[in-house]
Amino acid sequence: MLDQITQQPTVDTRTFRLPEGEYVNQSVPKDLIVLHFTAGTSARSVYSTWTQRPGGAVSRVATAYVVDLDGSIYEFFPADRWAYHLGMTVRNPASFNDRRSVGIEIVNPGPLRLDSDSPDQLNWWPNSFSNRWCAISETDRYVRADYRGYRYFATFPKVQVEAVRRLTGHLCDRFQIPKVLPPANRRNEFDPNFYCSFRGIASHQNFRADKCDVGPAWNWGSLA
Ligand SMILES: [Zn+2]
Prior knowledge:
With 224 residues, the chain is an alpha/beta fold. The protein has two domains: 2-108 and 156-223, 3-Layer(aba) Sandwich (Lysozyme-like), CATH 3.40.80; 111-154, no CATH class. It contains five helices and eleven strands. The protein has helices spanning 43-51, 96-100, 126-129, 158-175, 192-195; strands at residues 11-12, 32-37, 65-67, 73-75, 101-106, 111-114, 121-124, 131-135, 142-147, 150-154, 200-203.
């Protein structure tokens, strides 16, 4: 239970720190946490993406936290600041939902597909889903679930789930965000009418119909 967290998360605020221009350096009240997955395999690759944009552009698309596969928690910018992490084109006046939320990117390759030549192999997205992720026999490394056009999703290591649990608990305490999850039957839904007024812990798929993070492999029970 989030209410029963006694151990504070260890947060690395130095290794991957975004320059001030890569987020909006304005302190705002928070009443929402939004979970994402990175569709990648390391926090370092996230940092590279966000600091080496094509042409040196500054987009201020980022999240305050990235949780690596080994459970390491990296703070990319101060959690009371904000950045454009939702990419909503409707129902988000003045980026209201980006401002009021703390974004957490969880390192995870995301959706998987069966290899076209080896049906006992699951691949992740690079090179048109041709990069091997695991064997179909490694049933602890993926879940089978139909969601937004995909059928397989990579699982999250236990140590990483525990780190996210501690981090969300800590952020709820710090910002007085309600320790509330969406109703079980709405967690996979895109529903701006509901989620624009939701306070608690939600995920990107609730704010965008074209996103599948944090996806069906995420264990919401770990935060319940
Ligand atoms: Zn996302």
